[in-house]
Every structure is written in C-alpha cells, then in structure tokens.
Design brief:
Elements: E1 3-5, E2 8-11, E3 13-17, H1 20-25, E4 37-52, E5 60-65, E6 71-77, E7 83-96, H2 99-102
Length: 114
C-alpha cells in the first residue's frame, strides 16, 4: 500500500486501523515512526472525530479526509497535550510532523490509497 498526493508518494509503509482496538491504540506508546510511515483510520461512514495525544511520545501531522478522500482538516499535534475535533471524517491519517508541509498538503486536496 502506498499513500499518494499529486502523484508523489507520501508514505510507502502504510498500516490500516480498521477495528475498534487498533483505532483506540493508534500510535500510542511508540517511541517514533519512520518518515515513510502512515497509519490510516477507516470508518464505516463520515463522523465527528475527536483525536487526542495522550501517551504519545512524538508530534504528528493529523490529516482528516471525507468520503471522497478529500482533505477537510490538517493539524500538527503535540505529544500529551494535542487534540483536535473535526466533523465529516471518513478517513484519518497519522504521519510524522512536517510531512503535510513538506508535500504542500492543503484543504481540498485529494489523497490516494486503496
């Protein structure tokens, strides 16, 4: 699985969080992730999603997508204190801090993955 934006690879190491346990755990308790890593959370239907950074050891870029994989929100979250709530989210991506800026991601852009 590869995560792409405008034909450029954002992440080549992609993990899907499809069940409630993997979604609750997310990246908690990890010491770090590689620059090529992304975790994608998939939900059955668009929802209001609240994300927290409790038990996180490093900052992340949080990318919120709608049902068409269009970016509806981007936020850099800090360990332990970061949080964000967003409506209409069908997919949610956690990546290393700075990836969104590095690739120029913005609201309305489409992210590709299968």
């Amino acid at each position: 699985m590869i995560l792409k934006h405008n034909g450029k690879t954002l992440a080549s190491q992609v993990v899907f969080a499809k069940n409630i346990f993997s979604q609750m755990l997310g990246l908690m308790f990890r010491k770090n992730i590689s620059q090529e890593f992304a975790m994608i959370f998939m939900f059955k239907k668009p929802m209001t999603l609240g994300v927290h950074m409790l038990f996180m050891r490093f900052p992340i870029d949080a990318i919120f997508l709608d049902g068409e994989k269009k970016i509806v929100g981007i936020e850099t979250l800090r360990p332990w204190v970061g949080h964000k709530r967003m409506k209409g989210v069908k997919y949610f991506i956690e990546m290393n801090k700075g990836i969104a800026a590095q690739f120029g991601l913005k609201i309305g852009d489409i992210i590709r993955f299968d």
